[in-house]
From TrEMBL:
InterPro entries recorded: PTTG1IP
Coiled-coil residue spans: 73-109
Protein name: PTTG protein
Keywords: Coiled coil, Membrane, Transmembrane, Transmembrane helix
Gene: Pttg1ip_0
């Protein structure tokens, strides 16, 4: 078929104008299995089936992609929440360890100050006497 406007019908071997108003030619003009349009080797039934399969595959692939993306987002969000919670726990542990080390240092320094009489305690009778 050289013209895309031509609808070839094998039952009566005629080329008629393609019915522009309707997408599919009516069965009164020519049956779908005997109608050819665009290429001679593919009938309208095969064309409709092929287009339906392609459209179905596209819809299924879009649905699968959307579901997979939503699943990945939900999974990554939960993973991020877990990581954030773990980081907060580690941060709190580090803070507590730091406070513990600070307290130990203070005790050690207080011992040294007490040993050399630098600590201003009222308990210590041998405290250093400073004149100004």
């Amino acid at each position: 078929l050289s013209f895309a406007q031509c609808l070839w019908c094998y039952t009566n071997n005629t080329c008629m104008d393609y019915p522009v108003r309707s997408i599919l030619p009516s069965s009164s003009l020519c049956s779908l299995s005997n109608a050819r349009w665009g290429v001679c080797w593919m009938n309208f039934e095969a064309l409709i089936i092929a287009l339906a399969v392609v459209a179905g595959l596209i819809l299924v692939s879009i649905t699968v992609c959307c579901c997979y993306c939503c699943y990945c987002r939900r999974r990554s969000r939960s993973r991020l929440d877990e990581e954030e919670e773990q980081l907060a726990r580690k941060r709190e542990e580090r803070r507590l360890q730091s406070l513990q080390r600070k307290h130990e240092r203070k005790l050690k320094h207080d011992e040294i100050r007490k040993k050399y009489g630098l600590l201003q305690d009222s308990d210590n009778p041998y405290s250093r006497f400073e004149n100004e």
